[in-house]
Design a protein that fits this description.
With about 600 residues, the chain is of the alpha/beta class. It contains 18 helices and 31 strands. Helix 11 links the parallel strand 25 and strand 26. The protein starts with a helix and ends in an 8-residue tail after the last strand.
Length: about 600
């Protein structure tokens, strides 16, 4: 009995130490709290308490509390001080005693949950029937013309529509918004409109175009026998919408072709090839080819019919090239906007000239140093800076596919360990903000790294007189944003309605695949302590959206999103099916989860 009493007194002492630390930090934070909006005073204080609480290693204390059948404080972030004070009271009661110094518990457990629910409704709108978690859907350009598609999104559970200012134009944005409002009004719903500021994007520059050639290959079986010929479509002119198997020829010559005509050409490899005309439809002709052929601009095509003259193939678009990179390769990144080139080799495979590509944001060169990590194309290729020069740097590739990975133009470049000193607002963002302020309910703020970035946005919002009118969602997508999250939140709490988006794609690249699980859990806890709604973003049911079939891991991931207040979906041809499935998953699984707490309904058979 004495041993048990000693353990309880040890636990009481540990809790007293934590509560004293909370009180000390509260006094230190008076200046910070003086700038917080009245709406967030209690939440800011609770966040400061929770951040202080997490400076302790609590694992031993949690195990001892669990062994006594008490709370482990694992889900206490939204009402931390109240949970500590109540746990301390219970421990004293087990000894038949009471605390010598009473402590005000502050925000109650019930009120902490109420605050989060209230702010979620204000930020993201009313919830759908039977579902706590809202759904945000990224709008494609098609939504500007296809009202029925937008109507179906609203009907199937879209609570918030997202428009990305990095794409399309003001004219298209305005048409999308008009369709959203029309569809929402028609169904008696209130759909919030969120617009993403593009933010500074570090991407690879252009790559020199390849030859103006198109390859046509018949389909063969395992034995090499032709299963179906290559299909070649002859048209007068190639447009942006033309299929890849299209080539252009003179319309006058095209009009002379008949079904069963035999065409002859010498391809770019000097190989004699034959085509057979199988269908003539108006201004286009379909031909079959039974051998692999490389047809380029200027390739001469003749007809075996003597009454038809030969014709040269018209202008073809150049091949979009890529740089193939293997482990240990050296890639040069240039400051100057020079078209990139793949490596060049001699006939024996010896390297003649290394590959190079430019960086679209040359301002970062002043912040980089040898040894810095670099990641390309959402983590598909990795390397480190081996040598640094004023106008270029050389990267040693450390991660790629076994046979090499292709790096293309306009692909993302991340520097996870480097503070690039990039502001979250570009000049384009400031221009776009004028439109956002007039037409949106929420601005999604990209590339937030520090409290200074938040202050910059608030300054711009004041110019358009939309502070406390336009809600803010802070997109957390770098390791620096994660490390600075507490001060970012406290700075944003100067206004009434804020949220946080866990941008898991960029965040995984920036923090490392091995850390993203921990990072997103910590972000959920910190936002929970501040009673700030969280948007769970990136690749939710993406295979279903793009291909029509979800993977098993995606279903599990969608279930995990119940820890947030909103799930963001990206666009895709099967977005209606995604909405229907996600709505069902979230509605059914909420019986088992409330935020991050497991609920236990009566066990039922399937």
């Amino acid at each position: 009995m004495k041993i048990k009493e000693e353990k309880i007194r040890e636990l009481i002492a540990q809790l007293e130490t934590i509560l004293t630390a909370l009180q000390d930090k509260e006094e230190e934070a008076e200046e910070v709290l003086s700038h917080i909006n009245d709406e967030y005073q209690k939440s800011a204080l609770n966040l400061i308490h929770y951040n202080t609480f997490r400076t302790f290693d609590l694992r031993s204390t949690q195990k001892k509390l669990r062994n006594l059948g008490l709370t482990r404080l694992a889900n206490a972030e939204g009402h931390l001080k109240a949970s500590l004070v109540k746990t301390r009271f219970i421990l004293y009661s087990l000894l038949g005693d009471s605390p010598m110094v009473p402590i005000k518990s502050g925000l109650s457990i019930k009120n902490g949950k109420k605050l989060l629910a209230k702010r979620t409704k204000e930020l993201l709108g009313y919830r759908s029937k039977g579902r706590r978690v809202r759904i945000m859907v990224t709008q494609p350009a098609q939504a500007a013309q296809d009202y029925e598609m937008v109507y179906d999104m609203v009907r199937n559970g879209m609570n918030c529509a997202r428009i990305n200012c990095a794409h399309d134009s003001r004219e298209i944005w305005e048409k999308i918004i008009r369709n959203i409002k029309k569809a929402a009004t028609a169904q008696g719903k209130n759909v919030k409109i969120a617009m993403d500021l593009g933010g500074p994007k570090i991407r690879t520059g252009a790559i020199a175009k390849g030859p103006k050639v198109r390859k046509f290959t018949p389909v063969r079986d395992e034995s090499g026998n032709i299963v179906s010929p290559a299909l070649i479509l002859l048209v007068p002119q190639i447009t942006e919408d033309s299929e890849p198997n299209t080539i252009a020829v003179a319309s006058e010559w095209l009009g002379q072709l008949k079904e069963e005509d035999q065409l002859i050409l010498t391809d770019t490899r000097n190989k004699l090839r034959k085509l057979k005309v199988v269908k003539v439809t108006g201004a286009q002709v379909l031909a079959h080819c039974y051998e692999t052929s490389y047809i380029g601009t200027g390739t001469v095509v003749s007809n075996t019919r003597k009454d038809v003259e030969e014709c040269a193939v018209g202008e073809l678009p150049p091949i979009e090239r890529a740089i193939l990179l293997k482990i240990n390769d050296i890639l040069t990144i240039t400051k100057a906007d020079i078209p990139g080139q793949p490596s060049e080799f001699d006939e024996d495979g010896n390297l003649l000239k290394g590959a190079h590509i430019s960086c679209q944001l040359p301002a970062i060169f002043n912040r980089l140093k040898e040894g810095d990590q670099i990641v390309f194309d959402d983590g598909k290729i990795e390397g480190h800076i081996e040598t640094m020069h004023p106008d270029y740097f050389e990267v040693r590739i450390t991660r790629a596919k076994e046979k090499g990975s292709k790096l293309r133009a306009e692909k993302g470049m991340n520097f996870p360990t480097t503070d690039l000193g990039i502001s979250g607002l570009t000049e384009k963002d400031k221009i776009d903000l004028e439109f956002v302020a007039k037409h949106a309910d929420i601005v999604n703020y990209s590339f937030v790294n520090s409290k200074e970035d938040v202050e910059l946005l608030l300054t711009e919002l004041k110019k358009w007189d939309v502070v406390n009118k336009l809600s803010i969602i802070l997109k957390i997508e770098t390791r620096f944003a994660f490390d600075n999250l507490v001060e970012i939140l406290l700075t944003a709490m100067q206004v009434k309605q804020i949220g946080v988006m866990i941008a898991r794609g960029d965040l995984a690249v920036e923090t490392g695949w091995d850390s993203i699980g921990k990072v997103q859990e910590e972000m959920l806890s910190l936002c929970g302590a501040a009673h700030i709604p969280v948007v769970w973003a990136t690749q939710v049911l993406e295979s279903l959206a793009k291909k029509g079939l979800p993977s098993r891991s995606e279903i599990t991931d969608a279930t995990t999103s119940l820890k947030a207040e909103c799930v963001m979906l990206n666009k895709g041809p099967y977005i209606t099916e995604v909405l229907q499935l996600l709505n069902k998953i979230l509605s059914e699984m909420e019986r088992f989860h409330e935020k991050n707490e497991t609920m236990l309904p009566k066990l039922e058979k399937l």
